């Protein structure tokens, strides 16, 4: 069972964006024919986390005000199971 994510709205958005980035990158690698079994998952996870944390402000600026508001609402209203 998943535990509810504790923390600030910003930390929750960063976690969400990191997971999204990982899924997107894995899909791109798969489409390019990469053998995902060769992927060092720990290094990949650390790389995706660092990318989001270092470029968070730029990522957020790429969203419209409406999209930022929707993202904030998504992480604040997410049900805790």
General description of the model:
The protein has helices spanning 9-31, 41-61, 65-77. It has a domain at 37-75. The protein contains three helices and no strands. Helix content is 70%, strand content 0%. With 81 residues, the chain is mostly helical. The termini are close together. Helix 1 crosses helix 2 (41-61) and helix 1 (9-31) packs across helix 3 (65-77).
What would the keywords be for this entry?
single chain; 81 residues; 3 helices; 70% helix
Shape: globular
Alpha-carbon distance between the two ends? 8 Å
The largest sheet, given as strand count, sense and whether it forms a barrel, is: none
Count the DSSP helices: 3
Structural class: mainly alpha
List SSEs in N-to-C order.
HHH
Report the mean per-residue pLDDT as an integer: 90
